[in-house]
């Protein structure tokens, strides 16, 4: 066996979770190695919806503009269409992904970023290239075999798939980001809830010029209600735009109890033709693969020095577009904690907050994604498409909605209501941004429990409560206009205060850990010309917010305090695991 390779953090997997973990760690100066059993990064689109919170993460890590340059922009994502085929009848649309005028306003108020459609085969190179440029070591065709851990680190055995030999990598911590069949999570014995393989789906990637059916109603997703579409899968046939308007992916279900069909080119093309509805358009099949719809989540994300992230810990269908978003956010939550533990600033106890904070998010995502599948059924039901019947009967039911009868009017109303209810899948702004953390890395301020004025899955509610992401507001510094989110992050804690908060500034400067300070007010480094921050900060000018490196509020005090130094010291001791 070759000599042992050493590093601070070994990451197994180069997908969104592994790549973003490497990027964050290298940005923070933490030595790391990424191994992947594959010979390349993702070669199919896979995950694609990239929400505002993920764009905020990528903004802080310095790659937001690289993603924007390659992604399909938000305004081309949002006419989610329900039809009998792309060339067939349209049944209705949902303004999606922030493109409803009211939701668009909410997006602009919530964040300095815009969501986009960034397919995984384009996202991974952005993350990995930046990670390697900043110091990550990447090894393709290197397969994780096993690990053992002790009080000082983890010894991982890997196999070089080119040479065929095995060697050991000694790391202080191991991150398992090896996907939905994670061997790292299995070897670590992470307890799981839910079940795998609840339904079957097929991905078919193809090229075809479909502009005449799609450019006038630009969208990421076109849902096809056709005979057989309710079998397995994600609730209907799906034509997904990869790149407007000639790169596509179809998702089609199969009966998981009978096993996946033979994925020949002829079979794939027959499905494409069925959902496109035009037999004359040239089609080139690029690839096809079968997968299963899962409903499984880890109850704990770590075992000792082994921590898992991404699909290794939450396995669910692509509904709501939450997969890669949650994966990237897992790694962003974990990376700063590892950095502070490794440099001795924080105690290893800080890492316990990773499970406490991210496991509830993972469970919510799995539940929401699977629930969204079930919420497609009422659309079929409104058309009588769930009962056993011939294709001809379904087409007759669809045609009947055009009639000038009381029954047809009721049918039209049911169809509109069923389609509109899909807002819970396509405009769940609260699911994206209303994450609230409760752990020892957050110091409660004793205020009453938060209540939501509107549906917390649909609507974002900003707050500066400890455990919430810092609210976005546009403030100015000289001639620059910046978001409050731009003043935090960058791998360090930040204390925000205003005029009269000098005691908090002195307290921050006296700490053993680096704390950036931001003073907002007339004549200060930052000013609040619109008055938005004064409202959203929920503290007085002399109060203070201590914000963690991931942009979440860790400590809040509403006013000036004569014992600011003691309060801040005690809060940091708890947050960093020294209390």
Core attributes:
eight-stranded mixed β-sheet, 31% helix, 579 residues
Layout of strands and helices, then pairs:
Elements: E1 5-12, H1 16-27, E2 32-35, E3 49-50, H2 52-60, H3 64-70, E4 79-83, E5 90-95, H4 101-110, E6 116-117, H5 120-133, E7 137-139, E8 142-149, E9 154-160, E10 166-176, H6 183-188, E11 192-207, H7 211-214, E12 221-224, E13 237-243, E14 247-254, H8 265-276, E15 284-298, E16 302-303, E17 306-308, E18 314-315, H9 323-342, H10 352-374, H11 377-382, H12 391-400, H13 406-420, H14 423-426, H15 429-433, E19 474-477, E20 480-483, E21 493-498, H16 502-509, E22 515-520, H17 532-536, E23 544-547, E24 553-557, H18 564-575
Parallel strand pairs: 1-2, 1-10, 2-7, 4-12, 10-17, 21-22
Antiparallel strand pairs: 3-6, 4-5, 8-9, 9-10, 11-14, 11-15, 12-13, 13-14, 15-18, 16-17, 19-20, 21-23, 23-24
């Amino acid at each position: 066996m070759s000599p042992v390779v050493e590093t601070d953090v070994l990451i197994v997997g180069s997908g969104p979770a592994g790549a973003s973990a490497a990027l964050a760690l290298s940005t923070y100066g933490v030595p790391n190695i990424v191994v992947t059993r594959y010979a390349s990064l993702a070669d199919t689109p896979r995950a694609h919806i990239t929400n505002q919170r993920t764009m905020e993460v990528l903004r802080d890590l310095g790659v937001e503009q690289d993603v924007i340059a390659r992604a399909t922009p938000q305004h081309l994502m949002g006419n989610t269409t329900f039809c009998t085929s792309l060339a067939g009848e349209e049944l209705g649309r949902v303004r999606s992904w922030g493109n409803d005028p009211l939701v668009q306003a909410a997006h602009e108020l919530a964040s300095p970023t815009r969501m986009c459609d960034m397919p995984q085969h384009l996202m991974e190179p952005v993350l990995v290239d930046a990670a390697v440029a900043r110091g990550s070591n990447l090894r393709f065709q290197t397969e994780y075999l096993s690990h053992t851990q002790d009080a000082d680190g983890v010894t991982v055995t890997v196999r070089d798939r080119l040479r065929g030999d095995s060697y050991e990598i000694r790391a202080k911590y191991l991150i398992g980001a090896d996907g939905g069949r994670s061997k790292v999570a299995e070897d670590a014995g992470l307890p799981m809830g839910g079940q795998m393989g609840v339904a079957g789906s097929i991905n078919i990637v193809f090229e075809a010029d479909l502009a005449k059916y799609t450019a006038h109603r630009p969208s990421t997703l076109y849902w096809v209600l056709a005979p057989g579409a309710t079998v397995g899968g994600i609730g209907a046939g799906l034509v997904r735009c990869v790149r407007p308007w000639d790169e596509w992916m179809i998702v089609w279900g199969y009966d998981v109890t009978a096993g996946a069909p033979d994925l020949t080119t002829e079979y794939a093309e027959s499905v494409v033709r069925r959902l496109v509805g035009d037999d004359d358009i040239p089609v080139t099949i690029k690839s096809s693969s079968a997968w299963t719809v899962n409903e499984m989540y880890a109850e704990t994300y770590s075992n000792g020095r082994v921590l898992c992230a991404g699909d290794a810990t939450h396995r669910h269908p692509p509904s709501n577009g939450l997969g890669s978003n949650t994966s990237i956010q897992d790694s962003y939550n974990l990376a700063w904690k590892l950095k502070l533990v490794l440099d001795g600033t924080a105690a290893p106890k800080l890492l316990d907050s990773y499970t406490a904070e991210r496991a509830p998010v993972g469970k919510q995502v799995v539940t929401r994604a699977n629930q969204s599948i079930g919420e497609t059924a009422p659309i079929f039901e409104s058309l009588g498409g769930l009962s056993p019947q011939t294709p001809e009967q379904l087409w007759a039911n669809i045609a009947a909605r055009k009639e000038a009868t009381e029954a047809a009017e009721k049918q039209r109303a049911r169809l509109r209501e069923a389609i509109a209810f899909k807002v819970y899948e396509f405009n769940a702004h609260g699911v994206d941004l209303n994450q609230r953390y409760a752990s020892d890395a957050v110091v409660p301020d004793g205020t009453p429990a938060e209540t939501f004025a509107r549906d917390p899955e649909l609507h974002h509610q900003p707050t500066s409560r400890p455990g919430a992401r810092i609210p976005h507001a546009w403030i100015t510094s000289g001639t620059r206009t910046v978001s409050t989110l731009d003043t935090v992050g960058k791998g360090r804690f930040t204390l925000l205060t205003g005029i009269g908060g000098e005691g908090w500034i002195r307290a921050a400067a006296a700490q053993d850990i680096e704390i950036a300070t931001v003073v907002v007010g007339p004549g200060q480094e930052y000013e609040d010309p619109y008055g938005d921050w004064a409202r959203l900060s929920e503290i007085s000018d002399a109060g203070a917010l201590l914000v963690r490196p991931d942009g979440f509020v860790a400590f809040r005090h509403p006013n000036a305090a004569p014992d600011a130094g003691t309060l801040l010291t005690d809060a940091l001791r708890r947050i960093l695991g020294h209390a």
